Amino acid sequence: MNSFIVMQGETYQQEKKLGILWSPQQDKSGMVPHSYKRMTEVKKGDRILHFVKGAIIAISRAAEDCKEAQRPTLLDGTGETNGYKVSTEYRELETPVIIHEHIAGLSPFLPKKYSAFQEDGSGNPGYLYACNEELLLKLLEIISIHNVYVEEAEQLELAIEVVRRKEHYPLVTLIAETVLDAKTKMERGEQHFQQLLMPMWNRRCQICGIQLEALLKASYAKPWKDSMDTERVDPYNGIVLCANHDALYRNGYIAINPSGNLQISKKIAEEDYPLYGLAKKIKIAANPQNEPFFRWHKNNIFLDKRKRVLNRPPVE
Q1: Which of 7, 18, 139, 307 is the least crowded, having the fewest Cβ atoms under 10 Å away?
Q2: Is residue 313 part of a domain?
Q3: Dihedrals phi, psi of 70, to nearest 5 degrees
Q4: Domain-embedded: residue 107
Q5: Is 126 found in the same domain as 223?
Q6: How far, in Å, CA of 259 to CA of 284, rounded?
């Protein structure tokens, strides 16, 4: 299962009435925008969050794979009539979720490229955007707080037993199933990634040498939220680190340049290196296939990214 955010605006009511998503194949200049082409990625069972005038107002499930289709006669619009169509089952929220009110909590899960939302919570131009599982789960948590009420529970839980007691409320079932599918996808992907990564790095932290497996992490260079599905299970998209150095790496305080040299952010004072288990001139035995991922991390996450060792453009 994959998830998407559709920016519908004025077309929402018409598309909802027809039970579809529809976009042209090209814009007025004859170009193919990424947000139109992404329609071709939608498969049966995928989830779509509907963004209209600053808020998520509905969730739907794709009833079939995306198909090429002419603009429906009941759908307003001019220009390109060749398009992409997805039949989908709309479930409207009782209480829409206004994104700018929650953008602080959502920001850590927004991808660096092709994000549906801007830093102020407004929507980016375009039609369809991918929604990574971390962002999806955070959005569903917010949606659930405002739309799902579980009796006799101290905290909101979307357990299957609760859903069965609320079968008359299809939105609850859709949210619960989506949460389960998203968590399952992440857990399986991360487990597979770890199984591939650990033996490649001799099951030890590449900075301090710790080998106690309970303290080791399969650290992504290009995080889940920014990676394609294939990159999320690519063992070259990461390195084995202890929990301490994993946190430093994920938060940009350290980086590994494409040649394997450890770089330490200037935000850590040199006299404090021993406190963090760091030292100058540490070199990692990197594989050439790590290079694009390590470079992406250095250019996008490392806190001193403006001072690049290699004069190369960022990897997207």
Answers
A1: 307
A2: no
A3: -70, 155
A4: yes
A5: no
A6: 8
Quote the strand ranges of the chain, DSSP E.
Answer: 3-7, 20-24, 47-52, 55-62, 67-70, 82-98, 128-130, 216-220, 238-242, 254-256, 262-264
Q: Which pTM value belongs to this model? A: 0.86
Within a domain: 276: yes
For helices 170-200 and 133-147, the axis angle rounded to 10 degrees is: 150
Q: Are residues 27 and 115 in the same domain?
A: yes
Q: Which residues of the chain have pLDDT under 50?
A: 152-156, 163, 166-168, 307-316
What the block records as the tokens of 175 is 């949210």
C-alpha 233: how far from chain center:
14
Does a structural domain hold residue 148?
no
End-to-end, the C-alpha distance of the chain in Å comes to 23
Please give the C-alpha separations between residue 194 and each of 182, 227, 229, in angstroms, as whole numbers: 18, 16, 15
Cα–Cα distances in Å, from 156 out to 23, 66, 152, 153, 267? 36, 34, 10, 7, 39
Identify which of 198, 207, 196 has the alpha carbon closest to the alpha carbon of residue 235. 196
Yes or no: say if 8 and 54 are a contact pair by the CB < 8 Å rule. no
Helix (H/G/I), strand (E/B), else coil: 16 = helix
Same domain, 100 and 206: no
Q: Are residues 91 and 13 in the same domain?
A: yes
Q: Which of 106, 132, 158 is the last residue of a domain?
A: 132
Q: Give the per-residue pLDDT at 148.
A: 77
d(CA 224, CA 138): 14
Provide the residue range defining the domain that includes 237. Answer: 201-300
Domain tally, the chain: 2
Cα dist from 193 to 170, 201, 239, whole Å: 34, 13, 10
- Report pLDDT digits (tens) over 286-295: 999 999 999 9
Instruction: Please say which residue of 132, 159, 184 terminates a domain.
Output: 132
List the one residue out of 40, 17, 34, 127 whose CA is nearest residue 86.
40
Q: How far is 214 from 231, CA to CA, in rounded Å?
A: 25
Domain co-membership, 111 together with 212: no
Residue type, 253: Y
Residue 3 and residue 109 in contact, taking contact as beta carbons nearer than 8 Å: no
